[in-house]
Amino acid sequence: MDPRFRISEDERCASEASYISSPPLLAMTYTQSHYTPQGIPSSRSATMASSRAFALVLLLCALSCHHAAATYAPVPAKEDFLGCLVKEIPARLLYAKSSPAYPTVLAQTIRNSRWSTPENVKPLYIITPTNASHIQSAVVCGRRHGVRLRVRSGGHDYEGLSYRSEKPETFAVVDLNNMRTVTVDAKASTAWVDSGAQLGELYYAISKSSPVLGFPAGVCPSIGVGGNFAGGGFGMLLRKYGIAAENVIDVKVVDVNGTLLDKSSMSADHFWAVRGGGGESFGIVVSWQVKLVPVPPTVTVFKIPKTVKEGAVDLINKWQTVAPALPGDLMIRVIAMGDKATFEAMYLGTCKTLTPLMTSKFPELGMNPYDCNEMSWIKSTPFIHLGNKATLDDLLNRNNSFKPFAEYKSDYVYEPVPKPVWEQIFGWLVKPGAGIMIMDPYGATISATPEAATPFPHRKGVLFNIQYVNYWFAEAAGAAPLQWSKDIYKFMEPYVSKNPRQAYANYRDIDLGRNEVVNDISTYSSGKVWGEKYFKGNFQRLAITKGKVDPQDYFRNEQSIPPLVEKY
């Protein structure tokens, strides 16, 4: 086995995010279905603890040393921005580049080491709010003083655009790591979850309230809620309950004016856009109300590896048409690495009912009762991601020591890939610098939902999604993995979606295109190049909505939705 893939399943995640943050491990407290990390105020009750006088003292100190540290904006503008912030936000929640803690606060959220190198433009400040009013103040101050905001929440920003810029730019980061309260109402089958929470924390909180409720979001527990929901969000429940975004029933979002909105006070298009239209384009989502879904007391999980010599090519060739047609209760995805394909499944039911189903629908795999692992849904979440030694405590682990250099791409497949091509694919998977392929079958609920129901458009006719994952552990070792990623993506072009060649927004890929900024506004024509690959026909509606809620393009990055202002 290639040593680059031996140590972790962390990069196998089937959902990632447009926001990103990974703070240290903090225990969770539980009282009447309400979770808050110990030592961190709830986002609904936190108050500013610092006095105005103390904040001004810190301001003077920060300004005196920051003058020499930053290079991207005139000093008076930065002084004005910081002065504005400390009037409303405790100074202890603000980190200037000159702060001794700044490198740690910035680095703890970076999972892809490619984006921590010196050539990446870093934020002037990191703002770590503990309640919505702090975010409102950051937006007001940022607009007043010409400092843009980027936002990160919790785990898997593949291109790092939530905390870095490719070109010199005056910006600050709103890091939502302190805002991760989860409040569950089991009787109503709903929950409110802050954007800074990670999926594992949401799943854990749900399980503490009810053993027969769950939520259909990403596979990896370290993914941030804010980014996952904003870009769609799918995992092992996608075939039964669709994506996370379509199960969001309310939001609290700070708009470009610094106003805190919810579903009742925002337009229908704005509410539609934040649920799958990508993070950071339409405001800063503080928290999400979600509809919880029923899960049985027992689910069954299996992982069956097959090498090429054991028939992996024939099995994947069969899988690509069988898996999308199975009942929604059964999800079988494939992880292909080297000369091996692992068939990884979750079934909403017992082994007793799964076994005859597999015998009937996919007998070639040879699944039998000895392959079954029966457990509760909540125990399946760390098991699938980390294996049979995983515990529920792993869902709360926010430590992140796995920080490789990484490259990611994605595809959608509508027509079965010919068997000879699968043979060639396994040849690609053993080449120098080879990565892995993660393939998630669609069908059932995710495919039955209309394309325009949410911005996430990959629905009817999709057989499966592909995520290409590659990583390495020294900057100088990146040539072969990067070339492999580029080459296999080109090789797969004839066998995947066309016009456009689609991609998943949460598997952000800057190679698909970058916004061009003209007169300080991202152009629609440049955004359309990459935007229609993520959103297909929904991209235009997203851009029109952006033109209504943020016509000056304040919330932006290299792949944010550009404003399209309708003329009457």
TrEMBL record:
The protein's required cofactors: FAD
Keyword Flavoprotein: yes
SUPFAM superfamilies, A to Z: FAD-binding/transporter-associated domain-like (SSF56176)
Domain of life: Eukaryota
Annotated PROSITE patterns: FAD_PCMH (PS51387)
Keywords in alphabetical order: FAD, Flavoprotein, Glycoprotein, Signal
Designated name of the protein: FAD-binding PCMH-type domain-containing protein
